[in-house]
Each structure stands twice: as structure tokens, then as C-alpha cells.
Task: inverse folding
């Protein structure tokens, strides 16, 4: 996740991103995508596209008086609809405990070094089959049902075994490590579009860069047995959904020092606890002594939930 320091006034976005997705700023030249290499699967077999549009958006803005300038804006790269793949931009962080991720969705990790993450969890798909096999291993009650706390603790321990950290992800170095990520080539004009959204109100529809970005299905990471925090959190969410455990998938950041943060994804349970599948923790967040309003502490680290986080619902 990339953090840009700007000045401005906070603005909270709506549950969904209203209106059409904006085009590039007038001074930005849009063009075709760079070479993306071979991703190694047949998109039609998964119900997911190989690529979707690449957009940019400012998703969070807050004041931290410990730094100058004091206003921090977090701008990210995000999936957007394209002519070849019509879809709807939604706000991941607006989800309630009664909602789930759509059957077909595409989520980004906010950066440009790692492909967008595709989800096709319709009955009988490769992902659905793998999830059923995982859930079958969770201890059952006498009546065959799964106790919510049993499911939560199973996810906390086992997700890290199913998707281990890649070589560099535990240090959050942002480097490309999978073949499909190493093949990504992005032109400078994309960064120019990125810079143009720093002052945009939080919650504005993402701005299109005019380029496309690769999509890799979640089950490819399960097959590889490696991934990053977003794959771990998403897998944990889908397992809990199968078990009937109410929760929210949350995108936010961990504060490293004043004015600097690193993107992170976790789960908020209905009782207020934070389940972090990446760090294998389940705990109630602490808010006393927060250095910035909206910050809370879990596992010894301050973090915050972004005000919005765009993702795609496949139409």
C-alpha cells in the first residue's frame, strides 16, 4: 500500500461508489497495457477474467499532528470495470456482519507489484471444492454442525498452514515473488494518474488509468501454498462463511511510525474481536492511548480501518 502525504479535508465515501468510474486526468496520456506474461490458467474455466481495468483512488485521510504536513492521504491502485469486463465497484469496508463477498469478485492489495485477487466461489467451482475440503476437516458437534468458536480457532491456526508466508511477505517488502507478478510491466503514465487523486475526496469513484492488470484466482495461491496477508484473510473469511460465522473482512493498515503505515487485511468478528489470520491472533482491540483518532491496538501494533476500499463485483 502506498501512502501519500497531502493537505485536505476528510470526506467519508458512500457504501457503494456512485456514478461511473472516472477517466484519466486531462494531462495523463492513456494507452494499452504492458506485457503481462502467461498467467497459467484458462479464465473461462474459473468464471474470472485474466485482466480487468486498473484504477486509482484515495481511500483514507486523517490528521497526524506528530508530522508535517499533518494530513495523511492514502491512495491505492484498485480494480475497475473495463469494456471487455463490465462490473460494479463496491466498498469492501462498508460490508456489515450480515453481508458476504459476492460469489464472483476481484480485490486488489492496493499496490502494483502483485496481481489482483479473483474469487469465484459458486457451487462446484475449483475454489468452492477446495473450501468444502477444508471445512470437512473442522471438528464437528454431535449433530454435525460446527461451533462458531471452533471454526474461529481452526481458522486462526490452520490458515497459515494452508497459505504460508512467501519469502518476502513477512517483511512486507512489496516485491513481486510469483511468476504472474514478476511479469507485470507498468508505464510511468500510471503513476501520473496515481498522483492526480491525492486531493480527491475519500469515496470518489476510482479514476481509470487506461491500462489493464492481471487477475489471479485465490485457489492458485492455495495450490502454491504461499501468499500474503490478503490471501490469508480472504481464505479465512470464506471458511468462516461456509461455517455460518458472522464477520467482516476489513482492509486497513498497521502504523509503523508517525505518518507512515503499511497496508494490512484482517477480520472483525460480530463480538468486536479482531481475527488476524496472518498473525494467528484473536483479540479484542484496545483504544486507550491511541496516537491518532480511529487508531486501535491489536497484538502490540496500532492499526486503523480505511474509510473505503474499492473492489469489483462481477456483473
Result:
Amino acid at each position: 500500500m502506498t501512502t501519500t502525504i497531502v493537505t485536505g479535508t476528510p470526506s467519508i465515501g458512500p457504501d457503494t461508489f456512485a456514478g461511473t468510474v472516472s477517466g484519466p486526468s486531462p494531462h495523463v496520456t492513456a494507452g494499452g497495457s504492458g506485457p503481462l506474461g502467461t498467467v497459467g490458467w484458462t479464465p473461462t474455466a474459473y468464471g474470472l477474467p485474466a485482466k480487468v481495468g486498473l484504477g486509482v483512488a484515495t481511500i483514507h485521510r486523517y490528521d497526524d499532528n506528530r508530522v508535517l504536513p499533518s494530513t495523511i492521504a492514502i491512495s491505492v491502485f484498485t480494480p475497475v470495470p473495463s469494456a471487455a469486463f463490465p462490473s460494479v465497484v463496491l466498498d469492501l469496508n462498508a460490508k456489515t456482519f450480515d453481508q458476504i463477498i459476492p460469489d464472483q469478485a476481484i480485490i486488489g492489495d492496493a499496490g502494483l507489484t502483485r496481481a489482483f485477487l479473483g474469487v469465484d466461489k459458486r457451487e462446484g467451482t475449483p475454489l468452492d471444492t477446495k473450501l468444502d475440503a477444508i471445512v470437512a476437516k473442522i471438528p464437528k458437534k454431535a449433530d454435525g454442525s460446527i461451533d462458531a468458536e471452533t471454526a474461529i480457532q481452526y481458522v486462526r491456526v490452520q490458515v497459515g498452514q494452508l497459505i504460508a508466508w512467501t519469502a518476502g511477505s513477512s517483511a512486507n517488502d512489496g516485491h513481486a515473488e510469483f511468476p504472474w507478478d514478476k511479469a507485470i510491466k507498468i508505464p510511468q503514465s500510471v503513476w501520473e494518474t496515481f498522483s492526480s487523486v491525492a486531493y480527491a475526496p475519500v469515496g470518489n469513484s476510482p479514476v481509470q488509468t487506461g491500462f489493464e492488470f492481471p487477475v489471479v484466482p485465490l485457489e492458485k495461491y492455495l495450490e502454491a501454498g504461499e501468499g500474503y496477508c490478503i490471501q490469508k484473510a480472504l481464505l479465512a473469511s470464506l471458511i468462516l462463511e461456509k461455517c455460518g460465522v458472522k464477520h467482516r473482512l476489513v482492509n486497513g493498515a498497521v502504523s509503523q511510525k508517525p505518518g507512515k503505515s503499511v497496508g494490512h487485511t484482517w477480520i472483525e468478528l460480530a463480538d468486536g474481536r479482531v481475527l488476524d489470520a496472518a498473525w494467528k491472533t484473536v483479540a479484542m482491540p484496545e483504544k486507550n492511548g491511541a496516537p491518532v483518532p480511529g487508531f486501535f491496538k491489536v497484538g502490540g501494533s496500532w492499526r486503523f480501518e480505511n474509510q473505503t476500499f474499492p473492489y469489483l463485483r462481477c456483473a
